[in-house]
Request: fold
Amino acid sequence: MSTSKTLSLIKRESFFDDSFFTDAWEDFDKAVQSILDKFDSSGLKVDVGTRSECRDLYSRIRTSKIDEDLYASQALQITEKDGKFQAVMDVKDFSPSDLQVRVVDDRVVVEGKYFKKSEDGTSTSSKSFYKEFTLPHNANIDEISTALSKDGVLTVKAPKREGDAAKPSGAVTASSVQQSVSSSVKQSSSSVQQSSSSVTSSSVKKSLAKESY
Reply:
């Protein structure tokens, strides 16, 4: 039987203004860079000096692409190193009240919802967000922690279980096709619901996508 535990989200200050997130800054820069490389042809590179400009460009890309696909333009970086696991992702477009992080057996599940009103305000669309991460075999599931910055960056961390030998591996992005690490990412189908007053249209489901690294 599966065991499930909902994790408490620690609310923090803005991501790059809060030293609590220092060890995740580089990972998020890499996540943003992967989206710029994918959708922008300017060749702009993320570093400390260009970070603000790059984040603004990323935000514009995300805004223009999110209605087509919740996942393709999302900044997301997974790192597995020395038995420790860390995920950092942009979730600012999802309703904070519907954002949930759970531990299910040896997996971390992140769920949320994205809402958008039509231009005339008569209907609302919603999409369900789902990401699933399989943790390293020697990650300490009992010590998993999560934090959410007020500008919408989520971090999930799992330390190495004491007494276990680590299998070295590097950082991987959500856009990686294949990496020789012992974790996997799954994203669920997303449903789109249109509502006008008390009328709800049928859901549109996207296909399940899997990425492993």
